[in-house]
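sorry to bug you again but im stuck and you know this stuff better than me. what follows is a protein written twice so to speak, once as letters and once as structure tokens for the fold. id like you to explain what the token line says about the fold, in plain words if possible. anything you notice is useful, everything is just below.
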Amino acid sequence: MSDTNQHVQSQIDAVKVNVSKWKNLNDSKKLEYLYDARRMLDTIVDEWGVACNKVRGYSEPHLEGNGYGIGPGMTGLHLNGLIRTYESLAKTGKAPAGKSTRKVGDQTVVTVYPLSFVEQIFMPITTELWLEPGKPATQGKCREKAGVCAILSPGNYEAPMDILSKMFVESNVCIYARHNNIAGSNCFIAKLFKKLIKDGYLSIVDPGIPNADYLVRSSEITEILMTGGCATFDKIVWGDDKTKTKRRIETPIEAELGAVSPYIIVPSDDWSDKQISHHARALAGWKCLNSSAVCASPQLLITSKNWKHKEAFMNSLKTAFTSTEGYPIFYNGTQDRVDQAANAYPADQVQKIAPKKGALKPIIVKSLTEKDLGSWSTQNEAFAPVLVNLEIEADGVKDFMKKTAEIVNSEKVFGSLSCSVMIHPTASEKIGNDGLDKWLKSMEWGTTSVNTWGGNGTLFPTGLWGAYPKHSPADVQSGIGVLSNALMYDFPQKQVLRSPFIADNHPRSAAPSMTDALLLKRMSYYVANPGFCRFASLIAAAVRAKL
């Protein structure tokens, strides 16, 4: 056996003997592991945040908050969500229920955020878990799933949602294979979960394809979870078999992959100049976040051909991209994918944008029509600063909503991970609450966000993150399975986020400001050690950011 194989096998050996022990471990004991991880997080927030920025090349002060948010910040949010669940399990034997439930047709809808006054202040977004049609709001069956799970970690973010979901929502022991792309920052996972590793419930494999390959081919692995792209998934499952008739591995595999992430603007004549500017800047900010290396990055901008404010919005969007200091490129192949997208369309439709500063240079492909559905940017996740504008013809708001649902649910649009829709209050009145619920019910997307970005769904441990359940290994697209679900609902299908049309937590520019960086840092400090003083400091930063 090679040194590489010996290293990986030793990590498998370390955890496989503890499958039953971990599954049957007292909830109070598991809670102690979560407390320990949070205490450890509090000691490494700055060190980890700096490392997350360093691997991305984020040396400018206004970008510093990004690393804090995407590493320790998100980690703290998910740790706290699970701590609340396990405090309830330890005390009552049951996971806490959502805030409320209601029915939309044959589906039960559970409000899972906010669950406290502090959460309501912290993030003015309502998160709903939509359960499978006809299924009840029961909880806890997910904990019966136990085995040895191999996790192939993401290369674009550090927060270990995968470990927390597989170990504490389900009951697996895990082997975590670190990704080379962020090896300088995902090394902190070992510090965070030092006690779990010491006690033989989690092990970590060094970065590298040979290590990951040995891990997924091991007969002692009962399940695989990967985060990445379709090409990687196909290589793992099918190898070189382009026909996808004979699997390379038979181990069950779940995958968190990407999509073309529709971003829908419902037409209304009542948008003010201020509202146009606000939402153009918000879209630019969400598009450039993490140097556009985000599986939920907005890509397919859908507008009505006859929207009165379309030209003003597109001009404002261009201004938002060009008027701020931008980001460096950190993910391999970014410029190649930008070029692929640009070359797929006539040159006069491609608008290349040069920000004041930064190597990340977005492109906007303008004036696509329904005839362009199935073209490169509707069938390929760019994972890069590519935004394409699809204009559709519709007779009023209701017809537009009906057509957009049909389009984004169709095979002509790739994926089902997250979708965002911006609805002006007057358009909402025309649709009505029941009409909007009916439209949301029809959406075949893992996350649909109303008046906020779908990628914000990753922030809520009580929600879920993953594809809509309609893909298969032969056509995996956005993936199979979900993460999060900290309240342990048995039959989650998708989540819906709802936000005010104008909200303080919408980005105000393509790149964050110094006050945004401060806010993200203080959020990371707060979630690592929640308490009054740090909450007051966070609120002070939030007030400062609004000024």
